[in-house]
Amino acid sequence: MGTVELLRATSVRPWFIAAGAVLVVGGAAAGLHAPISGADFWHLANAAVINRGGLGASATYLAHPGAPLDVRSWLADLFLLLVYRTEGLIGLELLGAAAGALIGAALFLAVSRGGRAHPLVMVVAAGLGILALTPVLTDFPSETLALLALVLLLALAAVRRQKRWAAVALVALVVVWSNTQADSVLAVLVIWGWVVFARWDAARAGHGPAPSWWLLPLTGAALLLNPRALGTFSNLPLSLGTRGEYPFLAAWSSVNFHPWSARLAELSGVVLLTAYWMAGHQLRRADAYLGLVTALLALLWVQYLPWFLVVAAVQGSWFLSAPVWSHLEGTPEMVDDRLLRPRVVAGLRAAAAVPVVIALGFLGHAAVQAQGGGGAAGQTASQLPVRATSWLAAHPSPGAWFTTPAFGDYLSDRFPDGAHLTCGDDPLPLAGLNLARCQQLMVLNTGALKVISELHVQLSVLPASSPQASFLLAEGWKIRYRDRSTVILAPSNL
What we know:
Layout (H helix, E strand, L loop, with lengths): L2 H7 L3 H19 L7 H15 L4 E2 L7 E2 L5 H41 L4 H15 L6 H21 L3 H15 L5 H22 L9 H9 L25 H5 L5 H21 L5 H16 L4 H24 L13 H30 L3 H9 L4 H7 L5 E4 L1 H10 L6 E3 L9 H5 L8 H9 L2 E7 L3 H8 L3 E5 L3 E5 L4
Parallel strand pairs: 3-4, 3-5
Antiparallel strand pairs: 1-2, 5-7, 6-7
Helix pairs in contact: 2-4, 2-5, 2-14, 3-4, 3-17, 4-5, 4-6, 4-13, 5-11, 5-13, 6-7, 6-13, 7-9, 8-9, 8-12, 11-13, 12-13
C-alpha cells in the first residue's frame, strides 16, 4: 500500500472517532492531578471570604491587611468552593480531569470544524498539543484559560461562517471570561484584531463572509459586565511580564515546569510552530495574526502558554494536512474500492484503535500517579502544611508569617478570616508592597533579616527541606514544630 493509498485509507470514519477519543482521553490524563499546586487553595480562600462578606469584602490573610479582594475570578472561585465543600479533595482532582476532557473535546471540534484536517494528522498534531498542556495544567485557572481559549476559537470560526448564534455566544463568552479570569482585556483585544483582519481578508479576496463591525463595541461593553467594571484594567502591567525578569524566559524555562515536562512542552511547541512555517503562502492574514498574538502572549508570561498551544494545535493540524489533501483532491472517492474489503476494513479499525489504547494507557498512568501516596489527601498532606495547621490554630501569633507561595495559598484557605498574614517569596497580585518586598528573602543574606523585622514576622512556615529554613536556622531561629513536610520557626527572642 503506497503513501497516497494509506492516506486515503485513514480518512475513513474509525480514524475520526480515534482522533476524538485521543483528544478527550488525553485531555483527561493531562488534567488529572491532585490539588497540590497551592493556587487552588488561594482561590478557595477568596471564595470563602466572598461567600461570607460579599464581593466587596477585604482580605486579611495577605501581607497588606484590609486589601480588597481581586474579584475578577469570583465566579470560578465560588464554583471551586462548592466542589470542595461537597466532594473534598477528590472532587477537585476529578474536576481537573473533567476540565481536561472538555478541553480535548473542544480542541477536536475546533480542528474538525476549522478546516479540512486529515484525521491521522489530527491525532498527531492535537495529541502533541494535549501532551504539551500537561505541565501547565497544574491549577484550575490555567485549565479554565485553556478551555475558554478553545471556546473562543469555535465562536470565531462560527462568526466567520455568519452563524446567527455565534455573535451572541461570543459576547456571552466575554462576560464569562471577565468574571473568571484576570486577562479578559487581552482576550477582547485579540477579538478586535481578529475582526479587523478578517474583514480585511474578505475585502481583499472579494468574496466570503466578514464579521460585523458592531462586534467591537458589543464585546467591549461585555467586558465591563463584572464587579470591577473599569477596574478590570488595573494591574494589567502585571500580566505583561514579571518584575525584573527577562520576559522571554518564562515560557520556555519556567521554574514551575518539571524539567522533563519543560522539554516536552518545548518540543511540542517547536513541532506546532513548524506547521506555521510549512503553511507558507496558505497562511491567511487572520490566521497569521492570531498565531503571532498568542505566541507573543506565551512568550511574555507562562500563564498564556496553554492559549498559544491551543491555537497552534488547531491551526497546525490544518496546515500540516495541506500536503495530504493535495494528494486526495480530485479523486472521485476518498477510499479505493480495494480498500473496502472486509479484511482491510478490519485492519483499519484495529489500527485506529492503537492511538486510543495509547491514550488510555496515559490516562491509566495519570490515575495511578494521582492516587499514589494515599491519593489526593495523601499527596496534599505530604507536600503542603496539612498537619501543621492544627499546631498553628492552637498557637496564634499576632505577627506575619513568612512562607512559600504554595504553603501560603494553602494556609490562606485554612485561615481566610483570621489575622494570620502570609508572606511569600513569589508575590501575589494586589497583595501590596509588603508582600512584594518578601522577594528579597530569596537572596538569603543578612538584608533579608531586616525585611523580616520590618514586616513583623513572628513565625516562618516553610517546607522542611527549603533553603529559607536552613538560612533562618543558621541565623539562630528556633524550631517550634516539625513534621515530614513542614518546619515552623520563630525568632530566638520569642
